[in-house]
Design brief:
It is a single chain. The protein has 247 residues and is of the alpha/beta class. It is 39% helix and 24% strand. It has helices at 45-52, 75-80, 97-101, 103-107, 112-125, 130-133, 143-154, 173-190, 201-207, 226-231, 236-246; strands spanning 6-14, 20-29, 34-38, 60-65, 68-69, 82-86, 161-165, 193-197, 210-215, 219-224. A hairpin with a 5-residue loop joins strand 1 (6-14) and strand 2 (20-29). Helix 5 (112-125) crosses helix 7. It is globular, with a radius of gyration of 18 Å.
Amino acid sequence: MHGMGIVFEHTRKSFPDGTVAVADLNLEVKPGELLALVGPSGCGKSTTLRMVNRLVEPTSGVISVGGTDVLSQDAVQLRRGIGYVIQNVGLFPHRTVAQNVATVPGLLGWDSQRTGERVDELLSLVGLAPATYGSRYPHELSGGERQRVGVARALATEPPVLLMDEPFGAVDPQGRRRLQKEFAQIQRDLGTTVMMVTHDIREAALLADRIAVFSGGAVVEQIGTPQQVTEAPVNAFVADFVADFAA
């Protein structure tokens, strides 16, 4: 199952208190690419991401996934087709690792044999031996191991689209680089379309096909390859943001 594109057309999100998180966003994530959203805190990155699976409802404009308007679909069905990984994972504490990874296959009615095989395959893929880890509970894992389970859970049904919000933020630097490399390999192998929010420009440069640099209100200051953004920033805002990459 290869990735589907995500398109934002004049998408806006304003909140009742008058805050405009996303002013007027036009952005395309191409099928199979990993697009990283970077920018200062509070610039609308997470809101943008969460409008794709309708955890945040857009105020106006259109967001389509694979050519279909997300607002025309049942939100629950929509979310089952989109993987979602957040910083602190949100694993179910009273379910084992294997049961956590089996969550969406279970909702989709997969039989136990198919589910079991998929769980084992994914745990191996993210570097956790199924025989060792499958029966453990989240509290028995390190932060890095929990994050791996979160990635495995999100990929369980090979979703064509994966949304990631600071996915490796809680992992120690050494484990983080290892996890990033493994994830890059998985993403290439599966051809999943990934939209990832990160505050870490190095992570964006390592993983992304393209980087979008946001300023307040989700204004796209620059979008391009990691090389374009880091070596040829279009303005002072971008230059300032990517400065710590060179440091």
